[in-house]
Amino acid sequence: MKHKISIPVLVLIVVCALAAIALIQRALSHRNASVRTETAGLLPKFQADDVARFRLSWRDMAVTLVKNKNGVWTVEERALPADPKKVLEFLEAAASIRPLKLIAPADEKTLLRLRTFVQGFNGAIPGARLEMQDKNGKELLNLAMGRGHFLPDDTTPPDQRVPSGRYFALLDSKLNPGSVFLAPTIFEDAPPVPGAWLRQPVFENLNAALGILFRDLPKGRIQWTVSRPDPSRAFEDASGGLRPVARQNISTLLSALAFRSAVDAFPRSHYKNLEPAFAELIITDAYGLSRKAVFHRLKGDSSKVVFTLDARIYRQVKMPGLDQQKLIDRFLFSGKDVCYEMPMPLFNELTAAPFELPKTKKPHKK
């Protein structure tokens, strides 16, 4: 025999369920409000544009960026222009740090585990330090940037995991850690290395390239050269050998030139062991420009090459909106007396002949 539940009982069950839900929501709301209250005002509020100087450091590595009165950022250790896009993204991330949770107690064990300290602790691995000031030298931020925070239920392989946040600690004037907190800001691409913040030399408009030539110096012997009559056509061997050009090799070369081709840079006066130029890579394009990288070796250092930039107008081209000199000035933004450092593997990749390898004949079966 089936028992029927009366309407009053059903009403009572529904009322109790709704009351339980309301209590849970109230508890969660109270908890969130408590977290917001304890983290409110923890960090000073400022805008990205308020920052006039910031410094990132870790152990014996450091980079300092300063903004001049015209709003242009410079890497102080190199006295060279900084990458404006990278700087702006970093400043906006710093200005929007929002603590999610205070970590308590912030005792020595916790500081060591989260690396939210920058000195002391008997040589233990520290976190990085971030300092920011405004144009009057007033401190805007002084933080220890510790470990990344990973979600406990993340099933991604350890070497592929991406942190969902980072632990930070406020530092006092003596660099002692104060409040420790978790925030969703990661600062994944912010190494304390000057070269990582430099504005990179970029070969623009490579889709309009008409010729690419690599030759030895000082004799000028051509190692290889490819060309095409217009940007809609494929490159062909222009050195007389009529070897088939590998499109993937050309794509790899142009991609390397269009992005980061240098890991560091210095004024030419920095180098005391710079050998005479031994090669150059020249790109000519449909806009009438010839741009090149001129390569030098460093005495006693085979791990990298150093290159300088040059450009000229090799023919006048009239196009709506085209300013040839403006394109050259943008390419030579740091001037001709700046030397960029390139790892040897990248140099070898850039300057390898972009031709298809000859097919090996299969042995004839008797």
- Decide which structural class fits the backbone: alpha+beta
Biggest sheet: strands, sense, closure?
9 strands, antiparallel
Helix content estimate: 10-25%
Radius of gyration, rounded? 29 Å
The oligomeric status of these chains comes to single chain
Q: What is the string of helix and strand elements?
A: HEEEEHEHEEEEEEEHEEEEHEH
Distance between the termini: 91 Å
The fraction of residues in strands falls at 25-35%
Inertia-based shape: elongated
Q: How much is the average pLDDT? A: 88
Q: Strand order, biggest sheet?
A: 4-3-2-1-6-7-8-9-5
Number of helical segments? 6
**DSSP E strands, number:** 17
Question: Which regions are unreliable across 5 or more consecutive residues at pLDDT < 50?
Answer: 27-37
Give structural notes:
This protein has 366 residues and is an alpha+beta fold. The protein contains six helices and 17 strands. The chain has a nine-stranded antiparallel beta sheet. A hairpin with a 3-residue loop joins β14 (279-285) and β15. α4 packs across α6. The model is unreliable at 27-37 (pLDDT under 50).
SSE arrangement:
Blueprint: H1 7-39, E1 53-58, E2 61-67, E3 73-75, E4 80-81, H2 84-95, E5 101-102, H3 108-114, E6 128-133, E7 139-149, E8 165-171, E9 177-183, E10 209-216, E11 222-227, E12 236-237, H4 247-258, E13 264-267, E14 279-285, E15 289-298, E16 301-313, H5 324-331, E17 338-343, H6 344-351
Helix pairs in contact: 4-6
